[in-house]
Amino acid sequence: MECSEWYKEIVIDMKYMGSKRRLWKDIAPFILEGRKDGQCYVEPFCGGCNSLSNVNRWRLAADINPYLIAIWKGLLNNEKVVFDIDKEYYDKVRKSYRNNDNTFSDFEKGWVGFIASYNGRFFDGGYSGISVGRNYIHESMIDIINQIDKLQGVEFYCCSYNELNIPKKSIIYCDIPYKDSKQYDRVKFDYDKFYQWCFDKKSEGHKVYISEYWMPDDFDCIWEKEVKCNINIEKRTRTERLFTI
Questions:
Q1: How far is the C-alpha of 41 from the C-alpha of 38, rounded, in Å?
Q2: Which pTM value belongs to this model?
Q3: Which domains does the chain show, CATH number per domain?
C-alpha cells in the first residue's frame, strides 16, 4: 500500500525525545550483524521510529504511549492530519487530552501533542510554533513521508516492553529512557526490572541491545561516541553508548 497523494504535498519529520536518527548509521552494523532470513527485529520502545524505518523485513514495534502508537497506525492507514496547527487549535486538542474526552481522537491528540509541542515533548513544555521566521512545527515533520512507506508491514502494539509477545530468537533493540537524565526526569521507569528482563530475553535465545549512557557491569559496551548535546545546556557533549549481554 502506497502513501495517499495528500502525504506527498509536504515533507515531514517527527521530533521525538531520544531519537536515534543521527546515530543509527553508527550502531546499526552492531545490532543487525548476522541477522538471519526470517529473524524478527523488535523495538519495544519504538518512539519516533527513526531507526525502525531503516530496517527491512519482519519487524515488531511497541510503545506504552497509546497516542504515539495511534499516530503510527493512523498514518499507515492514511488518516488525514492537520498541517497548520495554530496555538488556538493546539490549546483545544490539549484541553481535550487533559479532560480525557472524545472531542478529538487518540490519533489527533497524538499528532498535535507530539508535532506541535516544544521539542516533541507530548503536551509538555508548551506550543512550539513559529519564531524568528522558523516554523518549528513543520521542522518537526521533516522525514515522516519517507518513514511512512518504509514502515509498511510493521506490526505495532501498545503495551509495556515486558508485555510484548516476542517471536523466538529475535533481535531486540531497546532505546530506553536514559537513567539520571534531565531529558527523562519525569519518567518513572523501573531499571532493575528492565535489567532482569534483558537477561531473561537472552536466556530465551534473543539478541538484546540497549542504548544508554551507563549500564550495570553485567552489560558489555560494544560502541560509544561523544555527541553534541542540545538539551542539557550544562553539558555541551555526552557519550552515547550501545550495550549488549
A1: 9
A2: 0.85
A3: 5-65+154-244 (3.40.50.150)
